[in-house]
Amino acid sequence: MTTQDAMNTFVKDTGGWVASQLEACTRCGICADACHFYTATGNPEYAPVWKVELLRRAYEQQFTFSGKIKLALGIDKKITDADLNHWSDLNYQACTVCNKCSIACPMGIDLGSLLAGVRSGLAAGGFVPEDLAKAVQLQLDEGSPLGMTDEVWEDRLEWVEDDWEVDIPIDVEGADTLVIFSSIEVMKFPTNIAAIAQILNAAGENWTVSSTAREVVNFGFYEGSEEHTKQFLKTLLDGAKELGVKRIVVTECGHAYDALRWHAAHMLPEANNFEITHITGVLGELVGAGRLNLKPGFYDELDAGTITFHDACKIQRKGGHIKEPREILNLLAPESFKEMTPNQEQAICCGGGGGVIAIKDADPIRFKSFELKIDQVNKVGAKTVAMSCSNCRLQYVDGVGHFDLDWKVTGLSQMVADALIEEE
Amino acid sequence: MMQNPTFIRGPFFQAALLIFVAGMLYRLVRVLMLGWSKDNIPPMGSKATGVTQSYLKGLLIWPFIPWVKNTFSKNPVIYLAGGLFHLSLFTIVFFGAPHMLVFKSLLGFGWATIPLPIVDWMATAGIVAMIALLIHRLTNPVLKLISGLPEWLNWLFVFLPMITGYLMTHHLFLPYEKIFGLHVLSVSVLLIWIPFSRISHFMFYFFSRTIHGQEFGKRGVKP
Ligand code: SF4
Ligand code: SF4
Question: Which residues in chain A touch residue B209, judged by CB atoms under 8 angstroms apart?
């Protein structure tokens, strides 16, 4: 571990874009109220502005006159290993990089990006929590952090094809669309794989999966290492290029979509050779264009109680797919679909994103923060919670088990697939 | 210095003004020169729309109508105090008749002022708001954590011109000449302090609000 590497990365990554935002902060503390970890625990160290403190100090000490004076007068101290360890805990365990704080900040500071910047420095210095570092190593070694090796991937897909009687085209050259699933879906929510395959087949899409570009999860992006993020992204783009597809569709995984859609082209300009989108966008398009034969009001007829939708930070607030789930649910469940408050851009994070769910030490605050969701869901009286992110879904399933709740947790694709009218 | 009001009103104030302008320019140029990478990500929505909404939200909705954002209204008094303080400061500095004389002498031109009773009411509201904000900073756990010497000085250096200005217009405690000298002195100290402090946020506000609008706009979501 070296503090110097962390500092160098802070300095290298600090252009005008980051600096002007660090300068804009008035230290008003308003962002704290937006953070689910702060609200749930009341620990002032979980205030977003405090999590960014490390980056601000590095910036001021390096670049500003007042920062240098403060250092000389002893008002500020040089950043130490102990500081980096402490901020590693704050940033990896108590932040999902959900960017809700940015909406609360009266200056409009894009805190999510600054928090990602803090992670970059921590990763460069080797201050990534052990659990996360292990997962990254697994992805480097086996191509997946969840043990989805080549054989496992093949077996699982074959099993899905057999069990759900659905075709999954593999390595089809010249297909229009490459669909990349996450190992969370392949390993934990295989019904998602079946659902998405059923939907795309029903719509007559010319699609394929790839045996090389098969893991959309990017643990390098969680830890904040540009090197690893880039390497994992490159595997995907190379796979897409080999098959000659026009479009890449990320399935129900939030951070993977964030990495591929909103960051890949900064590191790998060839990303712009493809249209990159999320399955939620595709569903919205197919349903809107009437390309799916769906049964309107399907869920109202099931009479299984109120359905609500959980907005995933990386797919809705940071991803832009806010309208589509509403259009779909208003079609399939016009009576039983009810919104939580707050929702959409203002939604409260599930508490498990940003790699938090992978870190054992974060369990207590992760569950604590989930209590905010329990409160929200209970307020609208929902029995089913739908979402379009498998990482959120993992957190919900875990939370439902931990708190012994009687909710059904499901994915949006799953809901669409179930409402398809079988063609004779 | 205190004994010499002409010095305070003359060269000292002018020097403070010079330090303020030069210091702010330096800060601006410094940040601009750190380099700006180009955004080559294909947008999903319009950046221009996002930026417009971002400013509208920043100026109108925020912070005067805190309950629009139901999750952030845990402490509406503080939002109102923050908003009121800024409004009061702007009104007094840019639309108070005595300040207009200073602007006229500095710039060679002026603009319409707001009648004294309104300005005076604003000043009272501003002072009350500042005291509320201080109490909040002293008691809120997050603010206690993030406040160091610079934050306390920020408060003090802004409060002094406000309180001396108030005492001056109401002819309280000290003879007019003396309190006038103190007022100009405190303004000068504030002007010198701003480039070294986070009060400079009024300049960087335009960066962060624009960035915020761009980031949300390009994703097609409301900032
Ligand atoms: S990004 Fe989300 S989790 Fe992180 S500090 Fe901001 S509100 Fe909290
Ligand atoms: S809300 Fe914005 S300006 Fe206020 S402390 Fe947080 S980041 Fe800084």
Answer: 107-108
Global pTM? 0.93
B49 interfacial to chain A (CB closer than 8 Å): no
Token match 């080999």: residue? A242
pLDDT at A239 over 60: yes
The span from the CA of A18 to the CA of A398, in Å, is: 36
- Report the pLDDT averaged over residues B141-145: 95
Assess whether pLDDT exceeds 70 at residue B8.
no
Predicted confidence (pLDDT) per residue in A32-90, tens digit: 989 999 999 999 999 999 999 999 999 999 888 888 988 888 888 899 999 999 999 99
**CB–CB of B70/B104 below 8 Å?**
no
Residues in chain B: 223
Residue matched to tokens 């994070």 = A349
B36 contacts in A (CB within 8 Å)? 15-17
Q: Which domains does chain B have, with CATH numbers?
A: 41-213 (1.20.950)
What distance lies between CA A157 and its chain's CA centroid? Answer: 23
What is the CATH number for A206? 1.20.1050
Are A204 and A256 in the same domain? yes
Residue whose C-alpha is closest to residue A189's, from A164, A219, A221? A164
Q: Is residue A227 predicted with pLDDT exceeding 50?
A: yes
> Mind listing the pLDDT tens digit for each residue in A117-136?
999 999 999 999 999 999 99
Nearest of A331, A214, A341, A318 to residue A284 by alpha carbon: A331
Domain residues for the domain of A92 are 3-127
Return d(Cα A236, Cα A259) in angstroms, integer: 11
A97: Cβ below 6 Å to ligand 2? no
Q: Which of A222, A257, A287 is the last residue of a domain?
A: A287
For A162-182, the pLDDT digits (tens) are 999 999 999 999 999 999 999
Structure tokens belonging to residue B155: 């408060």
Q: CB A80: neighbour CB atoms within 10 A?
A: 10
Distance CA A63, CA A68 (A): 8
What is the residue type of A242?
E
Domain count, chain A: 3
Q: What is the pLDDT of residue B5?
A: 53
